[in-house]
Give the backbone structure.
Amino acid sequence: MIGKIKTLCLNIAKLKVKIATNYTKYYDYLRLYFEQIILSQDFEHDFDIGINAFWQEEGWGNYLKQLKESGNFADLGANTLIDEKKIVTIRKIGRKKKIIFDLQAEERRLYLKAILRWKLFKDTLRYSIFGKSQEDWFFQVTFPIIYYPVFWYLEYFLHTHMLHASAVEFAGKAVVICGMEGIGKTSLVLSLLQEENTSFLSDNLIFFDSQRIHPCYELIRIHKHEDSSLWKGKFKKVNEFRSLKGFYKPAFRLKEGGVQPRIFIFPQFSEKFFAKSISGPDIVHKAAIISQLPAELGNYGEFRKLYNFLDLNFNPQKSEYKALSDLLNSARCYVIGMPKADGLVINSQRLKDFIKHEQ
């Protein structure tokens, strides 16, 4: 399981992300999860973010102690050290295990060393002898290990931010559906994809700057209760994962590059169907708050604040709100009320008709 270091390179939001790990099962998980964006060439030196995810049995607890004794770091408390270019912290992920995160910024490049503790007896018993699945744990740690450095790099160097939303190109218009978990964003996207000349952009996350939105690669998570006719032929299940979630990858080539959004939709359940045009600061604030609520994304706020210690003059929230305000002002924004009792088929058809006739 733990042995030879293996690497793979990814194209996430046009960033070259090089990942090295000494844990074979995690490497295999990453290859399956990111299969569609793995770069064929190993960019030994030409990359934007370099990530080492190492499982370590010995000396894990001495890592911060040794850095403190070097005399080069200031102790911020809460298991966090900092010098001019590096911040090192211990964080607990998913109420399960502590991980050491060692982030360093140099010019226009980020380096992250994530050190995970390997307990030989317990982990061998749990994962090898009893055969317990690790995919759900891998899913949790991949956000702080891979996605969070990408989020921060895009914010810090490129003034590009993350939004919790789904997006498609439908009826010649780039449509963004921004809402809380459980409102039916995935179901609506799958329904829109049944129409001809519709392109899938993203299911759960998008990146944005002041003018365009950009897809964020993730496997789509389709719940068991979803109407299977909506996704069959469109997405393929990743059967290798023994996970509580159902992971699916698109059966078509993902659309690359950014697009200018035409319509922003904020769905909510209501007594009757309606479409209400909205604008102004409130809708900007609403979109920003929605992006902080999902569990895997809400934790980014904690890491973002820690990483901002590397440049105390950096104000990502100011940049985020300015870009989001410009983006929303250039599009048309609507609150869409959908009667839950009417079901997906009726509500999605109403939404399709609205989008097609929206001027």
About this structure: Residues 94 and 239 are 24 Å apart (CA to CA).
